[in-house]
Amino acid sequence: MTATIMDGKALAAEIEAKLVEDASRLKELGHEPSLATILVGDDQPSRVYLASKHKAAKRVGISSTSHVLPADSTEEELASLIEQLNRDESVDGILLQLPLPSHLNERRMVGVITPDKDVDGLTSTNTGRLFYGESDLIPCTPRGVMALLHHYGIRTASATAVIINRSTMVGKPLYHLLLNQDATVTMCHSRSSELDTVTSRADIVITAVGRRPTFVLTADMVKDGAVVIDVAINRIAGKILGDADFDQVARKASFITPVPGGVGPMTVVMLMQNTLIAASMQRGLTLSPVVQC
């Protein structure tokens, strides 16, 4: 068996084309959608991620502004900037780039963002709404994963799914999204025992560990015909790799995402969709998401 490659780059381009139409519709109704990003410090990977997001915003027709604070900024200084953006009626979405410097409490700082502008879907209000299946602003990476599954016709109802990640950005939101789609979901993490036994029984394996070479998803950890979604990014010897031993796992899986070019582009385009949803919600407009969850 040779797996079908789930081309996130191509799907993201299709979705982006539809978002251009949505952005144009908002402008016709008298509002230019906008996104504000915040970076604390000078983390190079974060700068690269943010640059790709600003480029995507420009392509879609979303105005974007970048706010950069020094690495030694206090929580009070960061909270003050977020509150300023909360009050700014021209700003529809606020993205606080994570991780933050270690002296800043991420959960507390994310909590300062008003829920209606929380385009990462990470505030307590939006995570609570997701718990009940009522959230419009869903974390971007999980939303992108669900879009890939739906696009490639992967059946989630009655499927067994294993997530190797329990973070608030990936694992926990994905757990609820898959559960809401009638999957039987198991969440694993660094302290899970007999991980290979659990994953080898799953129809869908989603891995987002990012600690290669300490952790690698090998072929013997997945069953024949499994769907493998690789969310992780590892930088090894100048190369970007996921968690999966791609060549070997692809020989057993039915579908697999590449790294790069799989989940990454989907995360960016879902941020654009969330920004447009936020813009429409704040003005009492109806904008159906291109990607439903």
Structural commentary:
This protein has ten helices and eleven strands. The two termini are 30 Å apart. The protein has two domains: 30-117, Leucine Dehydrogenase, chain A, domain 1 (Rossmann fold, 3-Layer(aba) Sandwich), CATH 3.40.50.10860; 140-264, NAD(P)-binding Rossmann-like Domain (Rossmann fold, 3-Layer(aba) Sandwich). Helix content is 40%, strand content 16%. Helix 2 crosses helix 10. It has a six-stranded parallel sheet. It has a three-stranded parallel sheet with strand order 3-2-4, with helices on both faces. The protein has a two-stranded antiparallel ribbon with strand order 9-10. The model has no long low-confidence stretch (mean pLDDT 95). A hairpin with a 2-residue loop joins strand 9 and strand 10. It has 293 residues and is an alpha/beta fold.
Short description:
The chain is built from ten helices and eleven strands.
Give the name of the CATH superfamily of the largest domain.
NAD(P)-binding Rossmann-like Domain
Domain module count: 2
How far is the N terminus from the C terminus? 30 Å
* Strand line-up in the sheet with most strands: 1-11-8-7-5-6
- Unreliable sequence segments: none
| CATH class descriptor name of the largest domain | Alpha Beta
Which sequence of SSEs, written as H and E, runs from N to C?
Answer: EHEHEHEHHHEHEHEEEEHEH
CATH topology type of the largest domain: Rossmann fold
Which range best describes the helical content: under 10%, 10-25%, 25-40%, 40-55%, 55-70% or over 70%? 25-40%
**What is the CATH-assigned architecture of the largest domain?**
3-Layer(aba) Sandwich
